[in-house]
Give the backbone structure.
Amino acid sequence: MFCFAMELQTTTHSMSYGKLLTFLFFGVLCPQFLAKVLPAADNASALLPNSPLSTPTQDMNETALTPSSNATRVQVQLVRFENPNSLMFDGRYCDVVSKCDPRIAVDLDVESPYAIWPGPRHPETYQILYEISNQDVFNIAQAVSKDFCPGKKLGNTGNLRVQIVDIDDISSPDLINRFECLFEFKKLAEHANEEHADITPWSRIKECTATFLDPSSFKLYYRYRMYKIPLNQHIVC
């Protein structure tokens, strides 16, 4: 009965400082009173703004690539190039009596994948990935990688920009074509194998987008993967 009277008085008047002390005292003596006046669990986050209940969940559109203890490696492999007509970007032939002599240079961009060509770096600074003489259709099977320290957050998309030129011993290189090979980190994560990085499967083979002429005249194929690697002397964080 005493608990009931105290409950009625407290819930029908605004609470002063003195009544707050009384509230705490009788909350210990009368647990049913405390349960009655406290807000429901759905409103707990309003009382505790710094509690986990009030912390917003991470936006899934922003991909946190790395955990706190491992670095992350993003790897893109050029699989095959096909230019069966020995063409350059303007429709002319590479050579009159022979095939092209392709040199393939690449830049793996994960900061600004949708920037206009050539992206943040000049093609002259691109990494030379592959070079071959007198071939128009050939397998490449060469990969480029980029490592990221723990806690690095990136967007959803990366882009491997590719420039292919015809090497000439007499004149400067002639442009064959430029390509953009886009990939999504969300799909990369689905293939990640944390325990066995060396056997992390590749994505399905996709086709890069050519910049010049009919895309059917030039075909460049690629695949990609992402896996976690332990921090060591090769990664400076």
Notes: The longest helix spans residues 17-29. The chain has a mean pLDDT of 75.
